[in-house]
Each structure stands twice: as C-alpha cells, then as structure tokens.
Amino acid sequence: MPYLTVQEIETIAERIVRAYHRYCAQQNQTVTRIDPEIVTSNVLGLQIAYHKLSRFGHVLGLTCMLPVQIQVFDDVEHPVYAPLDGRTVFVDESLRSENANIGRHNFTLMHEACHLVYGMLYPETYLGVQLRRVYYSLRFAPRNVTPDWEEWRTNMLASAVLMPKDLILQYMQEYGLGKKMRMVNRIFAARQYEAFSQIADKMGVSKTALAIRMKQLGLVDRNDLNNPYSLIDICCDETDR
C-alpha cells in the first residue's frame, strides 16, 4: 500500500470530480450533487451489483481487485457464490430499499469504488494484495473503532469525492451559513443546524459524514453532532476550576 498524504488523496478526488463534471456537461446535466452511481459506472467504468451480502445485514459492501467468488445470501436458506471480477463492486441490497438511508448507500458505493481506484492507480503496489485475492468489505462498526490504514484512506477518498469543498461552500452560501460555521449543534445553534441538515440532504450524504468532512476542511469549528450538550459540559468544567 503506498503512503499517501491527505493532499495527495484530495488531488485524486479532484481529478475524479472534474471527470464527473465533464460527463455531466456532455449529458447536459446540472451538478447538484456527486452521484456515486454515475461516478462508479460512467466515470470510472466499473460495474455495480446488489446482493444480500451477509445473513444478518452487517456487511454493507464488498470488492476485490482480481476475480474471486463471494458467498451471497439472496436466498438466505440457499446461499450461493457470485463472481467479483476486479471491476465490480457489490453493495448490500438493503441499501436500495424504499426506507434505506441514502447517505449510507452513497458512501458505501463510493467507498468500494475507491478501493478499486487505488488498485488502478497503484497496480504494482497492490500486486501482493491481488495475488492473495484479498477482498475489501465495509461493515457496521462501533463509532469508537479506528479503521486500519487502508480503510481510513479509502474513507478519505470517498468523502472527498462525494463532498468536494467547492460544492460544500456553494451550499453554505446558498443556505446562509457564510464561509464557516461556528458549530454543528441542534440545541444551541438550531437555525444553522437546520441549514446544515438541508445541505446534507441536498448532497445525498449523512449528517455525520458531512460534519466530519467540514471539520477536516476547516469549515466548522465545533462538531457537536453526537453530543449537543458538550458545550454545557465544557462551561461547567471551566466554572468548577
């Protein structure tokens, strides 16, 4: 696995996003979000297939850089093996159901496609991985679990593709947030939080993913998404000193 800086990952994402804009211009389509299905199929030239990837739904996506057979559970009582050919990503079929979380679907698809992007860009580096037929899977995991290096940088690339800085800034201006938010907090900054939520919906990403991305880009000072009362905790701590 090659070592990549955050800026190098951002540069790869920018190349993909520019290609996406060119494709949309050719189709006379206005870009309001980065559609991962178009990126995967039309920009990267990869295939997408939907299967039930595990008995209990804990596997969200799978891919591999060389041909391999993967057990799928479309019929739970009679699982079969489906081929991954090195140019295909598998996404769990539950993510395209009527009540599915669109942000989770989009991030899962883009994440798996980004594994293959790295394989296409650095084939020699991934030779050992290819020969061992290593496959990558995105699973439900506790929030406090730190992903390994490969998963971390794939998350970084997927985030940068789905949430380009220019597009975030465009929507921040449109929704009255200016060039930087003080905090993402539904209790103490309710109006700004509502605008932030609308931006996440507009971009087809989860609020969690957008908050993390904006924090990385320096577009928000505080991310209190998971604990809106943390501001009180800080004030109380300072008072007790």
TrEMBL record:
Pfam families: Peptidase_M78. Residues 99-214 form the IrrE N-terminal-like domain. This is ImmA/IrrE family metallo-endopeptidase. It comes from Agathobaculum butyriciproducens. The lineage of its organism: Bacteria, Bacillati, Bacillota, Clostridia, Eubacteriales.
